[in-house]
């Protein structure tokens, strides 16, 4: 199997470093002028068998391509290049819901590349940990009973362990929705509301994730696995999470570098719109969306959540 990764951000680069343990890897980025060290992963030297390039054509010879592109960038990229990817095995690593179509990455890929086998790689992971070779476990979702196990073995390494599922919807939604809750957790801590409040947000946020994912066809056990509860735990408790840091800034009333990709900000808006469309109650996601837009103050958001009607858990 020949492997290429499209997207030379921190996560795409980290995956290239990890997978280079199994053989040569192509790594493409629009501005990949660097060769041996990605500025987004300082201190990590690229192994010699990683071909870093800004020439897309040169990496499209691979039969398996990982799409390590931000969720809100993916639709436009596929519109431009989907025909060239069609028929290849495509693995999405994006964690988000497209704000325009209210669909996940796998649906966007399926529409643009109908002849491709599609998989989703997701779960609790930080780029720096993967690049440094620290033990990491992820979920690989693939509906194909033949291609799934093949990918599982090809993309696993001695320190990167993949667990296989056929539940693409559950894996994808777990990865997208947890970013929204991570922003909420960061808001709580940034506003000085304490760890007890964060625990409540994580717990009730997980309940929202599970309800929405279930309505959209996900299996409950997938949400309790690595791609749901596992990823939620990581991103709600670590300052390495951009979504959590974004929430910290919102809660503290401080500016945040918008040049940094915060998948959960756009996803919150998409989730709020999607929940309204299907009639699902998502109060935390809706409040995060309004806070990210600057449409409500933190104080008012907390008041609104705490004065909702009392109910059974």
Automatic annotation (TrEMBL):
Main location: cytoplasm
InterPro entries (UniProt xref): 6-PGluconate_DH-like_C_sf, 6PGD_dom2, G3P_DH_NAD-dep, G3P_DH_NAD-dep_C, G3P_DH_NAD-dep_N, NAD(P)-bd_dom_sf
Catalyzed reaction equations: sn-glycerol 3-phosphate + NAD(+) = dihydroxyacetone phosphate + NADH + H(+); sn-glycerol 3-phosphate + NADP(+) = dihydroxyacetone phosphate + NADPH + H(+)
Active site: 178 (proton acceptor)
Single GO term (MF): glycerol-3-phosphate dehydrogenase (NADP+) activity
Keywords: Cytoplasm, Lipid biosynthesis, Lipid metabolism, NAD, NADP, Nucleotide-binding, Oxidoreductase, Phospholipid biosynthesis, Phospholipid metabolism
Keyword Hydrolase attached: no
Cellular compartment(s): Cytoplasm
One Pfam match: NAD_Gly3P_dh_N
UniProt: sn-glycerol 3-phosphate binding residues: 95, 123, 125, 178, 231, 241-243
Broadest EC class assigned to this enzyme: oxidoreductase
Residue positions binding substrate: 95, 242-243
Protein role: Catalyzes the reduction of the glycolytic intermediate dihydroxyacetone phosphate (DHAP) to sn-glycerol 3-phosphate (G3P), the key precursor for phospholipid synthesis.
This protein's name: Glycerol-3-phosphate dehydrogenase [NAD(P)+]
Phylogenetic lineage: Bacteria, Pseudomonadati, Pseudomonadota, Alphaproteobacteria, Rhodobacterales
